[in-house]
Amino acid sequence: METYSFLRTLADSWALLALTLVFVGMVVFVFRPGGRRIHRDAAESIFRHETRPAEPDPDQDPDQAPDDKETR
């Protein structure tokens, strides 16, 4: 029973502190000053080819599926 009490105390104190610091770190990372352009680009990426389809890849064989493309 001593091991359980030790692990319970550890989880209630240090693990809670560590997870709180990870959460605060993630929030700071998302709202950092240089991240606005990156987040805006990611948010608008689904609308990038809204008016016309994307250009086909000239190196790709038309009979070959996109997932089957060989790596060079």
Overview of the structural elements:
With 72 residues, this protein is mostly helical. The protein has a domain at 1-41. It is 53% helix and 0% strand. The chain contains 2 helices and no strands. The longest helix has 29 residues, at 2-30. The N and C termini lie far apart (58 Å). Residues 42-72 are annotated as: Disordered. This is Cbb3-type cytochrome c oxidase subunit 3.
- What is the radius of gyration? 24 Å
Element pattern in H and E: HH
- Major sheet summary line: none
Name the beta content range. under 5%
Shape: elongated
Question: Could you give a quick summary of the protein structure above?
Answer:
The chain has helices at 2-30, 36-44. It is mainly alpha-helical and 72 residues long.
List keywords for this structure.
elongated; 72 residues; mainly alpha
Layout of SSEs?
Blueprint: H1 2-30, H2 36-44
